[in-house]
Amino acid sequence: MRIIGGKLKGKKLFFINSTITRPIRDIVKESIFNIIDHSNLLNIKINKSDVLDLYSGIGSFGIECISREAKSVTFVENNKDTLLTLKKNLEYLSLKSNVSLISKNINIEKFDSSKKFDIIFLDPPFADNDYLKNLSLIKEKKIYKNNHIIIIHREVNKIDELDKTIKIILTKKYGRSKIIFGTFE
């Protein structure tokens, strides 16, 4: 597992082998960033964006955003072992100034709604459907900027009722994974 672009390109990330987490594969991550950077369907750039990384795991998505000059990243992770690895990655890469870490259960109801995000990335466990409730709360609390993108990593065969919450712009499939790009209307 490594950082694939930006100022930290090539740096390795610590990860854990666990049934609880499944770090996003480099090829999938690279595709996400290529779509953000080059797709005519999206009007968002990583550079100078405020990023919310829900279900952060070891932080590979958010750290990649920092490497690519994101303005700030808010990591949210509650698993104790995974959280230790995320903190280890942030310390190893000396990332402190534009990073905040929420180490509790994901509870959007308690989020500071004055903080707005350009990019919201959700990578919940494949068996977790509670993320749909969090997605609805993000929309309700409007913790996103007018020009924003939502990126969701799910299992390819999982059918979620996302069209009730977001407008899906693009879905890409990569082996067992699918990446959904959308916005709140």
Description of the structure:
It is a single chain. By secondary structure, the protein is α/β, with parallel strands linked by helices. The chain has a single domain, classed as Vaccinia Virus protein VP39 (Rossmann fold, 3-Layer(aba) Sandwich), CATH 3.40.50. It is 24% helix and 25% strand. The protein has 4 helices and 7 strands, in the order αβαβαββαβββ. The chain has helices at 26-38, 60-67, 80-92, 131-141; strands at 50-54, 72-76, 99-102, 117-122, 144-155, 167-174, 177-183. Strands 3-2-1-4-5-7-6 form a 7-stranded mixed sheet, with helices on both faces. The termini are far apart. The mean pLDDT is 89.
| Helical amount | 10-25%
Largest sheet: 7 strands, mixed
CATH level 4 superfamily: Vaccinia Virus protein VP39
What is the CATH domain class? Alpha Beta
Span between N and C termini? 35 Å
Named at the architecture level, the CATH assignment is: 3-Layer(aba) Sandwich
Structural category is alpha/beta
Question: How many separate domains make up the residues?
Answer: 1
Rg over CA atoms, rounded to whole Å, is 15 Å
